[in-house]
Amino acid sequence: xxxxxxxxxxxxxxxxxxxxxxxxxxxxxxxxxxxxxxxxxxxxxxxxxxxxxxxxxxxxxxxxxxxxxxxxxxxxxxxxxxxxxxxxxxxxxxxxxxxxxxxxxxxxxxxxxxxxxxxxxxxxxxxxxxxxxxxxxxxxxxxxxxxxxxxxxxxxxxxxxxxxxxxxxxxxxxxxxxxxxxxxxxxxxxxxxxxxxxxxxxxxxxxxxxxxxxxxxxxxxxxxxxxxxxxxxxxxxxxxxxxxxxxxxxxxxxxxxxxxxxxxxxxxxxxxxxxxxxxxxxxxxx
Length: 286
Description:
Blueprint: H1 3-7, H2 29-44, H3 64-76, H4 87-92, H5 120-130, H6 135-138, H7 148-163, H8 177-186, H9 206-217, H10 231-244, H11 254-262
Helix pairs in contact: 2-3, 5-11
């Protein structure tokens, strides 16, 4: 187990259970991920209506403040506001579960992955790593096959996570529990294809935030960092696809993820930085 899992036990695969306020309180790495990603998105997003809420403690306990944060997320993205994290709210984080499982499954993080494995979860590993310098190791868009190039990319990502302060990763090319949590903390996109109008029902979420940041850094996007896949984001994606000579469909899928990474040769803790330990305002409860 890496440091994150040792700090917020027990390990619970993200998306594997419904999270809500109950007694006794739910605890674990999945709750801590909700808290950490919520806080970093508050810091990163710049919507015109102002922030969706206030930062909360990172303690791995689903208390009243985490319920309120969940309601803030749901209200902001137009979901049912009930403070319960189920499939629709997980989807905002880019995690497909239940009927929203992406790339044909298995659900991302539901099993350890190593050379020879195949499936939609391998595709997501590759998508997530392809958004960064690991694209040079993967050498092409996700294909759902865990081969030697994917193994090298996984090991490189673990190395970078260690240098970001999240210690304790096994020195092997296996995508295990610590690896999955680190991808939720540092990669943000790749768990689903992202698209917007007019051809599709708009997909909004924290993965859109990440794409907007990257496109803004490339000088292609001038709109708000708001997590909404609206017309400005769509046009920026299309401009990027045109420049890269790939299909201009406005859909951010495996091919576009790969080309994004070819233009974003940074470690996975950038450009949305989440240092270890993640900063938390004092005196806040989960």
